[in-house]
Write a structure and sequence with these properties.
Keywords: Hydrolase. GO terms for molecular function: hydrolase activity. This is Alpha/beta hydrolase. It is a single chain. The protein is of the alpha/beta class. The chain contains five helices and six strands, in the order ββαβαβαβαβα. A six-stranded parallel beta sheet has the order 2-1-3-4-5-6, with helices on both faces. Helix 3 links the parallel strand 4 and strand 5. Helix 1 packs across helix 2. It is globular and about 40 Å long.
C-alpha cells in the first residue's frame, strides 16, 4: 500500500483534498503549522517534506497545490527515483509572495514570525534550472479559464522531461469538485 503526500496551498482549507479518491493508498496532508521546523524557511520545509516522503509507505505520489506545488517540485529533485509520480495543481516554479497571499479572514497556518521568515526566504526562489532534474512523470492541473496560472502551467509542462497537462473546466483559483474529479482519475 502506497502513500499520497499532499502539500496544499498555503492559505486554503485542505478539506477539499480529503475528497480526492486515492484508492488503496494512505493519505498524508501536510499541515504547515504542524511541521516541527525551528527556522521556517522554504529550504527547511523542502527538507522536511523529503524526510516525510522517504519515511512514507512506498510508492509515494507527491501532490502539491499553488505554494505546495513549488515545494513539491523542489522536493522531487532530491527524491529522484523515489516518487511514483508528481501531481501539481495550479503550479509555480518561480516564487512570489503572492503564493502566501492571505486576506483578513483567511486562515494562516503558521505564526506571525514564521510567516515573516518564510516570506523573506521565498525572495529569489527560482526553480527554472532545477526543472531538468525532475525525472518523475508530472501531471499538471490548471483551470481552463485561469489565465495567469494557465500560462505558467503550459510553460512548466514544456520544460519538464515527462510533463502532462490537463485544463480543468470550471476550476479557477483553487481546487474544486471538477479538479478533485480530475486528480482522482489520475490516482485510479
Amino acid at each position: 500500500m502506497g502513500t499520497v503526500v499532499v502539500l496544499p496551498a498555503f492559505n486554503k482549507d485542505v478539506s477539499i483534498w480529503r475528497q480526492v479518491n486515492i484508492g488503496h493508498r494512505q493519505l498524508n496532508i501536510i499541515d504547515y503549522g504542524q511541521l516541527a521546523i525551528e527556522d521556517f524557511t522554504f529550504n527547511n520545509i523542502v527538507e522536511k517534506v523529503v524526510t516525510i516522503v522517504k519515511n512514507a509507505n512506498q510508492p509515494v505520489i507527491l501532490a502539491g497545490e499553488d505554494f505546495g506545488a513549488l515545494i513539491a517540485l523542489r522536493a522531487s529533485v532530491d527524491l529522484l527515483g523515489r516518487l511514483d509520480r508528481l501531481i501539481l495543481v495550479r503550479p509555480h516554479y518561480q516564487a512570489s509572495t503572492a503564493l502566501l497571499k492571505t486576506g483578513i479572514f483567511d486562515h494562516v497556518p503558521v505564526s506571525r514570525s514564521q510567516f515573516k521568515t518564510l516570506k523573506k526566504s521565498l525572495q529569489g526562489v527560482d526553480l527554472t534550472q532545477n526543472l531538468m532534474h525532475v525525472q518523475d512523470a508530472t501531471y499538471i492541473y490548471c483551470g481552463e479559464k485561469d489565465r495567469k496560472n494557465r500560462r505558467v502551467a503550459q510553460d512548466l509542462k514544456n520544460r519538464l522531461i515527462d510533463g502532462h497537462i490537463e485544463f480543468v473546466p470550471r476550476m479557477s483559483k483553487g481546487l474544486n469538485q471538477e479538479g478533485v474529479h480530475a486528480v482522482s482519475e489520475n490516482l485510479r
